[in-house]
Each structure stands twice: as structure tokens, then as C-alpha cells.
Design goal:
Elements: H1 7-20, H2 28-34, E1 39-43, E2 46-49, E3 54-57, H3 60-63, H4 72-84, H5 97-109, E4 114-120, H6 123-141, E5 148-152, H7 161-166, E6 184-187, H8 201-219, E7 224-229, H9 243-255, E8 259-263, H10 277-280, E9 288-291, E10 303-308, H11 309-315, H12 334-349, H13 352-369, E11 377-383, E12 386-391, H14 407-417, E13 420-421, E14 423-425, E15 428-431, H15 439-462
The protein binds pyridoxal-5'-phosphate (PLP).
């Protein structure tokens, strides 16, 4: 990686950004004051800002740069495909080579009979497609009563109207927005750490299953179209659901004909040491998998909805003379699909799934668990390279510190100063580094996080804030 941007240029970029770029999840008060951190370059697991400060990217971009930054092969495949065929209309009956190849490759990698792929521009639109596909499927089947959709409190499924309505994370549901509430319903969040004090884990699992059953009863299982679930709730704070609950809820869906959608936008493509986590990690076969992010490792925007033979056979039955009027100008974009194919090829060649599953994944969780000795760390949770540190004010009662202390952000600021990017989500710090990370880099990450937490704890003490 080479030199920094000249100071005036860096300043100009910062000012233009602050003036004109309205970012996802802008917090206007702080943004107007502070503007953005301008990123300039990246290689491997490190990014460099416009002033030349280097960071270990503990967030992997945004859970997406799975193969790491600066891959020459990825640059080449994008350039080559751009020269050859930059775009092809995907509507109706025109295609392109990378889109067809990638659809076949995803059918090969996905579990069971998930052999059919609809492409989108990212995770939200992949979930939108899943939603409409399900409506279409039930319509074709003649079960028009199946109008209700379930998802979980604490979940994140995207930022379009429907996917924000499916999202159950309270912090993302702003009162200024309207949400679809008459046909989208949320069941309990499977957050074992936040279970009521009087319940042990087994009792909490029973409660979660009973809550799901109660929702089926309330709406009438025959009126429910689908259940959307992340294998591990990501943006909601890396919540790993109890295995018995996952299997029970999946079974309830199966026995009641409810379509099970596994939102693998984060968990897909190696983050949990598997192409997809639903079958290989949680032992359940979904009807639909949605994915994005790691599909191209963030080198190009792309999402996919991969669905079963059973759904395909219904919607494509001969003689119906129907149109599945869903899709986007950039569905199956040749450059994005070429990028995904190369990304998958790199993962296969470098055995990255094995590297995560048998080496760095367990090591990362082991090292992060050492942070439990810190006075503010109430919980460390996750699997492989998807993890989260839960900061609390009282370990015994699991009480959080007051919101205005903004502990997650304070820790991420302290880490940033020391050359580490970690993501603050309320009182949590979330981590999802590139899959290429080494044990030495994990040691570096955890050491910086430890020092950053120590600094914040000292500051809190100086402010007279008690931590127990
Ligand atoms: C589980 C999950 N689903 C969907 C999305 C939305 O993806 P995108 O931001 O690419 O639209 C995200 C984004 O973080 C996600 O974490």
C-alpha cells in the first residue's frame, strides 16, 4: 500500500462527503459535527485512511470482505468482464455467461434441492424477492389465505419497506417510518443471555418454542406463508439461538407447510466455516436461502435468493400462462456475477472454509473469551468469525450501562485510535474479520480490544461511574 492523500485533498473529500453524502443510518447531530472517517486503501485484513492511519479491519467491511482486500485476481476479473460484456438485459429470456454459471454454482453449493436462483443487488432486495416469491407461490398453489409472515424480534433483514417491516430490531424501527404490521408479526428473540433471571437455558428454550406455537395458534398456522430467520442474528447482536429451539421451530414450519427462509446474508460464504450455515451448522434444511455480502466479498454489489425444486415446480407449472413480475435491471449483472465466481474459486482454492472451521474460527472465539476477565464484559458470544462482546455495568445482574454512556461507541473509538475497527451496536461490540485472518492477527486484534476496554473502564471510573 502506498502513500496517503495530500492533506488538502483529504480535507476536500471529507468536506464534500459531509455536505452531500447522506449515509445509511446517519445520526445527523454527530455527523454534522464530526463528518466521516475517509478510507483510502486496503490490503489483506488492513485498511488505511486518507491520513495514512492503518487499521486491522475487525468488521470485514460490513461482514462482507471475506477473502480480504486488494485481490489482484478480483480486479482482473472485473476489468476483463467489463471489457467483454459490461451489461446484459436479464429480463424475460436474455442471459449472460457469468449469471448462468453462478446460478449453477450456487445450486451446487446450496443444500438439498435449492436449485433455482433469482439475483438481486444486495441482501435487502434478495429478501424482497424471497417475500414476493412466497406470495407468488401460495397464489399459484391457490392458498390465498397464507398471507401472514413471521420473523423475530431483534432480527435484521434489510432496509426496504418490507424488509424493514420484517426487521425486529427495536433500534432500527424509527417512529417516522410506517411498517407493515397487519401481515408481518414478530416472535420472541432467542437471546439466551437476556433470558429472565428465573429461567435456566432449558426453560428459556421451552419458552421460545411455546411462544412460536402460540403465534401459530393466534394467526392460524394455515394462514401463515413463511418464517424469515437468520441462522445467527447478526446486526441484532450476534445472537446464537439454542439448537433445540432451531430444530423445533423448523419442524413446526415443516409440519404446518410454512416456508422456512434462512437469511444467510451474513452467515453465508464461510463466516461460520460453511458455504451456508443452516444445514451444515444448524442441521436444518430451509426452503429458501437468501445471501449477499460474502457472495462477492464486497468487491461488487450482488444478492441472491436460492429456492427449492418444490417452489419452482409450483410456480413454473405448465399451462398457467403467468408472469413472475419480479426482478431488477441489475439482476444477474455480468460483472457482479463474474466477481462472485472468482470469489468462490478463491475460497475453494485457499480452503478458506476449512481455515475458518478448524483453525481461526475456534481460536478467535477462544481468544475473545479471555476478555471475560474485563470488568465490563458480561458475555462473549458467537461462532467462528461472527462474534460479539456484550458490555454491561453489572455482571451479576447483567444490567447495561445507561445509553448516554454509549459504551460500545467509546470502546470502538478507543480501538480506532489504536488501529483496530470494531463495530459498536448500542452496548455491544461486534466483530466479523475477513476469513483470511491469521492467528497472529487475531492476537493483535484481541490485545488492542483489551487495551481499548481498559482505557474506557479507567475513564468511566474517573467519571465516578460504577462498574460491578
Ligand atoms: C441478515 C441480513 N439480511 C439482510 C441484510 C441487508 O443487506 P443489504 O444491506 O445488502 O441490503 C443485512 C445487512 O446487513 C443482514 O445482515
Amino acid at each position: 500500500m502506498n502513500a496517503t492523500l495530500p492533506k488538502e485533498v483529504a480535507q476536500d473529500i471529507w468536506a464534500k462527503d459531509r455536505q452531500h453524502f447522506v449515509h445509511p443510518w446517519t445520526h445527523f447531530d454527530s455527523f454534522t459535527e464530526e463528518g466521516s472517517l475517509v478510507m483510502h486503501q486496503a490490503e489483506g485484513v488492513y485498511t488505511v485512511d486518507a491520513e495514512g492511519n492503518r487499521y486491522l479491519d475487525g468488521v470485514g467491511g460490513l461482514w462482507c470482505v471475506n477473502i480480504g482486500y486488494g485481490r489482484e485476481e478480483m480486479a482482473e476479473v472485473v476489468a476483463e468482464q467489463t471489457r467483454k460484456l459490461a451489461y446484459a438485459n436479464p429480463f424475460v429470456d436474455v442471459t449472460n455467461e457469468p449469471a448462468a454459471e453462478l446460478a449453477a454454482k450456487l445450486a451446487e453449493l446450496a443444500p438439498g434441492t435449492l436449485n433455482h436462483v433469482s439475483f438481486a443487488g444486495g441482501g435487502s432486495t434478495a429478501n424482497e424477492t424471497a417475500f414476493r416469491l412466497i406470495q407468488y407461490y401460495w397464489g399459484c398453489k391457490g392458498e390465498k389465505n397464507r398471507k401472514h409472515f413471521l420473523s423475530r424480534k431483534g432480527s435484521y433483514h434489510g432496509s426496504t419497506y418490507i424488509t424493514q417491516s420484517l426487521t425486529g430490531k427495536p433500534a432500527d424501527r424509527q417512529p417516522e417510518f410506517e411498517y407493515a404490521t397487519d401481515f408481518i408479526h414478530h416472535v420472541a428473540e432467542p437471546n439466551v443471555y437476556r433470558r429472565p433471571h428465573e429461567m435456566d437455558e432449558e426453560a428459556f428454550t421451552d419458552f421460545l418454542i411455546a411462544d412460536f406455537e402460540a403465534k401459530l395458534k393466534e394467526l392460524g398456522a394455515e394462514n401463515i406463508a413463511a418464517f424469515f430467520a437468520e441462522p445467527i442474528l447478526g446486526a441484532g447482536g450476534v445472537v446464537v439461538p439454542p439448537q433445540r429451539y432451531v430444530e423445533a421451530v423448523h419442524k413446526l414450519c415443516k409440519t404446518n407447510g410454512i416456508i422456512f427462509v434462512s437469511d444467510e446474508v451474513v452467515t453465508g460464504f464461510g463466516r461460520l466455516g460453511a458455504w451456508f450455515a443452516s444445514k451444515d451448522v444448524f442441521n436444518i434444511q430451509p426452503d429458501i436461502i437468501t445471501c449477499a455480502k460474502g457472495l462477492t466479498s464486497g468487491y461488487q454489489p450482488l444478492g441472491a435468493t436460492i429456492f427449492s425444486d418444490e417452489i419452482y415446480d409450483v410456480i413454473s407449472a405448465k399451462g398457467h400462462d403467468r408472469w413472475f413480475t419480479n426482478g431488477y435491471t441489475y439482476s444477474g449483472h455480468p460483472v457482479a456475477c463474474a466477481s462472485a465466481l472468482k470469489n468462490i474459486e478463491i475460497m475453494e482454492r485457499e480452503n478458506l472454509l476449512d481455515h475458518v472451521k478448524n483453525d481461526v474460527g475456534p481460536y478467535f472465539m477462544q481468544k475473545l473469551n479471555e476478555l471475560r476477565d474485563m470488568p465490563t464484559v458480561g458475555d462473549v458470544r458467537g461462532k467462528h468469525l461472527m462474534a460479539c462482546v456484550v458490555n454491561v455495568g453489572n455482571k451479576e445482574t447483567r444490567e447495561t450501562l445507561p445509553d448516554e454512556i454509549n459504551i460500545g461507541k467509546r470502546i470502538s473509538n478507543a480501538a480506532e485510535k489504536r488501529g483496530l475497527l470494531v463495530r459498536p451496536v448500542g452496548n455491544l461490540n461486534v466483530l466479523s474479520p475477513p476469513l483470511t485472518i491469521t492467528r497472529t492477527q487475531i492476537d493483535e486484534l484481541v490485545a488492542i480490544l483489551h487495551d481499548s476496554m481498559s482505557e474506557v473502564v479507567e475513564d468511566l471510573k474517573k467519571q465516578g461511574i460504577s462498574i460491578e
